[in-house]
Design a protein that fits this description.
The structure holds two protein chains of two kinds. By secondary structure, chain A is mainly β. Chain A is built from no helices and eleven strands. Classes of the chains: A mainly beta, B mainly beta.
């Protein structure tokens, strides 16, 4: 069974940083592309970052480009999202998601709240 | 590519048929996916390639359409089907873009 468990969310002040982690199990992590998708409270889904299976290729949604960095450690079956220069509008539940174009499996999410 | 879903809310009774629409701002072929999200839960993959049910999805869920117009049909709503449904395109990759969602609520 595929499991994706996010951690690292919390309350942070505007301008601050957080590092999210996602522990993957139940599949060959190194063979799959991964994404981060977020959902603001009461709102819809927003894709924000992609990483290839090798980790060599990454893409970002425009609003987070230059502030967020997606990375992975295939030896540890882990996905990461380094978030810098956080803004109030980054407040959301952040999901770790397996897949390239079709988002097959989702974690339960970790909540990031940006507020002073 | 913008994805627009309608209606925003659909109020139906158990046993009724639900018809959810998703429109793309330009042709996306059959490169559309549908997800279901229940309160407090992560989204779940329902349909991909516009019409192929994902593993374990009941046959009462069906998808159709191509180009710019897509439909998700739920034949005979069950209590567990009341949720929010999102469409997503991957024809123009990346960014992946989602519709705003349709909430199917109990009438």
């Amino acid at each position: 069974e595929v499991q994706l468990v996010e951690s690292g969310g919390g309350l942070v002040q505007p301008g601050g940083s957080l590092r999210l982690s996602c522990a993957a199990s139940g599949f060959i992590f190194s063979s799959f592309e991964m994404n981060w998708v977020r959902q603001a409270p009461g709102k819809g889904l927003e894709w924000i970052a992609y990483i290839s299976s090798s980790g060599f290729t990454t893409y970002y949604e425009d609003s987070v480009k230059g502030r967020f960095t997606i990375s992975r450690d295939n030896a540890k079956n882990s996905l990461y999202l380094q978030m810098n220069s956080l803004r109030a509008e980054d407040t959301a539940l952040y999901y770790c998601v397996r897949g390239e174009k079709i988002l097959y499996d989702w974690g339960q999410g970790t909540l990031v709240t940006v507020s002073s | 590519i913008m994805m627009t879903q309608s209606p925003a809310t659909l109020s139906l009774s158990p046993g009724e048929r639900a018809t959810l629409s998703c429109r793309a701002s330009q042709s996306v072929g059959s490169n559309v996916v549908w997800y279901q999200q229940k309160p407090g839960q992560a989204p779940r993959l329902l349909i991909y390639g516009a019409s192929t049910r994902a593993t374990g999805i009941p046959v009462r869920f069906s998808g159709s359409g191509s180009g710019t117009e897509f439909i998700l049909t739920i034949r005979s709503l069950q209590p567990e089907d009341f949720a929010v449904y999102y469409c997503q395109q991957f024809n123009d990759w990346l960014p992946l873009t989602f519709g705003g969602g349709t909430k199917v609520e109990i009438k």
